[in-house]
Design a protein that fits this description.
The complex is a heterodimer of chains A (270) and B (224).
Chain A (H helix, E strand, L loop, with lengths): L2 H25 L6 H19 L7 H35 L1 H6 L14 H10 L12 H31 L10 H6 L8 H21 L8 H44 L5
Helix pairs in contact in A: 1-2, 2-3, 2-9, 5-6, 8-9
Chain B lengths: L3 H17 L8 H34 L4 H19 L18 H32 L5 H16 L2 H6 L12 H10 L1 H25 L12
The chains are: A mainly alpha (270), B mainly alpha (224).
């Protein structure tokens, strides 16, 4: 390790210790386990700053945070899957003894011999770790792929195809009482008649034009081409809106982390 | 054995699930198979953990470059695994939830996983900002539409957007930026999303058929 790297490491360790002591001092009046609490908050702040340090460049602190995240996340999902799926949903259907061991209510009426199938397939999946017998892992994989294909075939046909088409056929005239009434009460209120009608027109025409844009079996010329062009505009609005929405989501996460740093850790915000 | 059996399993399971929709006594088959799927997925998590350990322990054994960070991964992995599997510090007996407040598992989640996960995602805000600075040029009509829509959505979700157009009367309220952002999300955005969803629906259905019928076999990998 270079001398400059050692110096940076020493500075970080000293700053961590000072922060821990100051935080413990601050929490001593309110928290029972203030030393542990102070350590946890300081460690979380250290991890947050380590990840943010990547904005400067890739560095050992970021690598530390990244590697810790990978290890801890893998174990987190393993434990959650074990307790919430295997213990809660599988064991009470298969074994009375194991149910008693885990203090889960055994369901004799729900005993189902077929639940051994996913257990066997799951064990076969672990064969993937073996170089010689790794091919056996294709069997559970085939089950997963077959299940996904079978379920999605029906699910997507219903929710993404039939229901979306059905929801597109909306009334194009809302609370219609004649042209005179329409113009005499014309306004641009968000819940007004005109805006609601405009919304339905945009949805109906937008979906049709969007679908025309995705239809490549006919050349996009003439009326078809114009509709296709409108379809592109609608899709551009969708992409722009999705982009804006994603950015705001990320920024709110960043605000959350900055709030943690300035409020929970440093105590600069009340 | 290596290719025929998996193809048969895929065909059998896929067909059975589609047929079950049309036969009332088999209605619950979909739910049972979803649970089977979840159970196998847990084993897949175990496989992922095992593979992670294998990769990092190999790096440690060979003293590969940056092997010190592999120690961090392995130690973090085992600490979290022990905290979760043995429910260390859990209030109550073994039947108490693994994520109960006060448990070591939940404490590690709150103070390690959560900060790391949310900061990793928050980091993307900077990259998106720099990418959009380079990509967002009003070069043509389509790019301008995308730019304007994104700008309105961004502005509409900030207090500044509300302040900017608060003077617009209620009878023209759709022109207030926050309302305009809502309208864009609920109308043109919905239309575009719906066109895409219909396309996705057709794509998924055709791909499912290809998989069930054994035309699509890439998921089996090569013959090694």
């Amino acid at each position: 390790m270079k001398r400059s790297s050692l110096l940076v490491l020493a500075v970080v360790v000293i700053l961590f210790a000072i922060s821990w002591i100051l935080k413990a001092n601050q929490l001593s009046a309110t928290e029972e386990n203030y030393i542990l609490e102070a350590f946890l908050i300081t460690f979380a702040a250290f991890l947050t700053l380590s990840v943010l340090s990547f904005l400067y460049k890739d560095n050992p602190f970021y690598k530390f945070a990244e590697h810790l995240f990978v290890g801890v996340s893998a174990a987190f999902w393993m434990c959650l899957g074990f307790w919430s799926t295997l213990v809660k949903n599988l064991i009470p259907r298969l074994s009375e003894g194991l149910s008693e061991f885990f203090n889960e209510p055994y369901m004799p009426g729900d005993y189902n011999f077929f639940f051994w199938i996913p257990v066997i397939l799951g064990i076969l999946l672990l064969m993937r770790l073996s170089k010689e017998h790794g091919w056996i892992a294709r069997w559970p994989l085939a089950f997963i792929v077959g299940t996904t294909a079978g379920l999605n075939f029906v699910r997507y046909l219903r929710s993404d195809f039939i229901e979306q088409i059905s929801a597109t056929f909306v009334p194009l005239l809302i609370e219609w009482q004649g042209v005179g009434h329409f113009f005499s009460n014309f306004n641009l209120a968000i819940d007004g008649q005109f805006v609601m009608m405009l919304s339905n027109w945009v949805i109906f025409v937008g979906v049709m034009c969007g679908l025309i844009y995705f239809f490549f079996s006919k050349e996009h010329t003439g009326v078809f081409g114009t509709a296709s062009r409108v379809g592109i505009w609608i899709l551009m609005i969708t992409f722009g809106a999705s982009f804006g929405y994603t950015v705001m989501g990320r920024i709110s996460l960043l605000v959350g982390r900055l709030t943690f740093l300035f409020k929970d850790w440093l105590g600069l915000i009340s | 054995m290596r290719r025929q059996v998996p193809l048969f399993i895929t065909f059998f399971v896929g067909t059975l699930l589609i047929v079950s929709v049309f036969i009332p006594p088999m209605e619950n088959l979909g739910e049972d198979f979803t649970l089977f799927f979840d159970i196998i997925a847990v084993f897949a998590f175990f496989l992922g953990g095992g593979n992670l350990l294998r990769v990092h322990l190999t790096k440690l054994y060979r003293k590969s470059p940056d092997w010190g960070f592999s120690v961090v991964t392995v130690v973090g992995f085992f600490l979290m695994l022990a905290a979760g599997l043995f429910k260390i510090g859990n209030p109550g007996d073994i039947s108490a939830s693994v994520t109960a407040e006060g448990s070591m598992f939940q404490t590690m989640f709150n103070n390690v996983v959560l900060p790391l996960q949310s900061t990793m995602y928050a980091l993307l805000a900077f990259f998106i900002a720099s990418a959009s600075y380079r990509a967002f040029r009003a070069k043509n009509r389509e790019a301008t539409i995308l730019l304007v829509a994104a700008f309105i959505i961004l502005l509409g979700r900030t207090p500044f957007g509300m302040m900017l157009t608060a003077w617009i009367p209620d009878s023209w309220s759709v022109l207030q930026v926050p309302n305009l952002a809502i309208w864009i999300m609920n109308s043109p955005n919905l239309a575009g999303q719906r066109a895409i969803l219909i396309g996705i629906g057709l794509g998924v259905v055709s791909m499912s058929l290809r998989i069930i019928l054994g035309i699509e076999r890439t998921y089996l990998g090569d013959d090694r």
